[in-house]
Amino acid sequence: MKTVLITGCSSGYGLETARHFHARGWNVVATMRTPRAGILPRSERLRVLPLDVTSPESIAAALDASGPIDVLVNNAGIGLFGAFEAAPMAKARKVFETNTFGVMAVTQAVLPHFRAQRSGVVVNVTSSVALAPMPLVAVYTASKMAIEGFTGSLAHELQAFNVRVKLVEPGYAPTTRFSQNTELRIDEMIPEAYAPFAQPILAAFAKPALVTTEADVAEAVWRAANDISGQLRFPAGPDAVALARQAA
User: Cα 22 from chain centroid?
Assistant: First the structure.
């Protein structure tokens, strides 16, 4: 029976991915910055652990408590939506600390174990912003594009140790409340000069033609974790799949 450790399981993609793997018989270590009771089923095959991906001490404690794992899913992330001109650099750095350096730190902590056992899978959850440029998410896009490059390079490094590295690229999922997953309000991030540009974009977000669901992402993570074909990228959701086809 395999074990998966998933970061960012308090809601959204991470929560649904934990449920998905558990329903398929895996042992699941669901981590989140502040554990929440009652959001996951009681089971001998499921544990909830605290994990702040920006804290080396928290990472070490979580991995020590989890024991051996077969798959790491780096899902924890935060958003930053609005005009780049209005983005405080302190907030931009905070996005990178979670979305970029947090992913790198957790991965680096897991790799000695994977290398020693000569098996393992790292699945990094990025975004469809890596498939096509999108407005008003410049900092967020930069943090995710960094992980795209990191993942592709790392996949080459770890081939000799039979460790696979994958990307899951979710589309736009309104139910995850992406634009609210930030400490800054949208009105703070859209200066008056940018309002005419931003208004039609916000209107389009309110009525998207195609959307991604949490289940779409959980299924893509599942496929990535079990893939042995050498495929690197797994678009998740109909909008992401459409963008990937256009980019091909």
Answer: 18
- Tell me the backbone φ, ψ of residue 98, rounded to 5 degrees: -85, -55
DSSP SS3 for 157: helix
Report the pLDDT value the prediction gives residue 206, as an integer from 0 to 100: 87
Range 122-141 average pLDDT: 96
Active site residue 13: no
144-199: per-residue pLDDT in tens? 999 999 999 999 999 999 999 999 999 999 887 555 555 667 778 999 999 999 99
Parallel, antiparallel or unpaired: strands 27-32 and 3-6: parallel
Reference 109, options 144, 61, 59, 34; nearest CA is: 59
CA atoms within 13 A on the CB side of 201: 15
In the chain, the domains with their CATH numbers are 3-247 (3.40.50.720)
Q: φ, ψ for residue 52 (rounded to 5)? A: -105, 110
Out of 13, 140, 172, 194, pick the active-site residue: 140
Task: Tell me how many helices (H) and strands (E) the chain has.
Answer: 9, 7
Q: Is 134 helix (H, G, I), strand (E, B) or coil?
A: coil
Q: Which pTM does this prediction carry?
A: 0.95
In the predicted model, what is the mean pLDDT of the chain? 95
- Of 200, 192, 78, 190, nearest to 139 by C-alpha is 78
Amino acid sitting at position 172: Y
